Amino acid sequence: MSKKDKNSYKEYSDSELEKIGRLVVNVGETGYRNKLAVYKMSFLKGILSGIGGVIGATIMIAILLFILSLLSEIPLIGDLAQKLEYTVESAR
């Protein structure tokens, strides 16, 4: 810390610093009173982020396979693209 940072809190009186401390404690206490609601929200966020990741990955793989199917006429990449396309079609 620089000297400016260390001395910046001296602009406030002790009573003002105490009020700020109480406000910080109140914010922490009031935000977590209903722990069940916090757990439900965290669970829901986890489920939705997982579903979003799966949907996003599916879309990206579909786009990649589409691009590879367009490149099937290129000599080196074409063989790989045809093998991937055959693998995907045989899995259906």
Describe this structure in words.
It is a single chain. With 92 residues, the protein is mainly α. It has one domain (12-91). 83% of the residues lie in helices and 0% in strands. The chain has 4 helices and no strands. It has helices at residues 3-7, 14-31, 35-70, 75-91. The longest helix is centred in the middle third of the chain and has 36 residues, at 35-70. The model has no long low-confidence stretch (mean pLDDT 78).
List the helices and strands and how they pair.
Elements: H1 3-7, H2 14-31, H3 35-70, H4 75-91
Strand content: under 5%
Number of strands: 0
Distance between the termini: 62 Å
Q: Roughly what is the average pLDDT, rounded to an integer?
A: 78
What is the CA-atom radius of gyration, in angstroms?
28 Å
The oligomeric state of the chains shown is single chain
Helical content class: over 70%
Unreliable residue stretches: none
Summarize the helix and strand pattern as letters: HHHH
Counting structural domains, the number is: 1
**Pairing-aware structural class of the strands and helices?**
mainly alpha
Features:
92 residues, 83% helix
Brief write-up:
The protein is built from four helices and no strands. It is mostly helical.
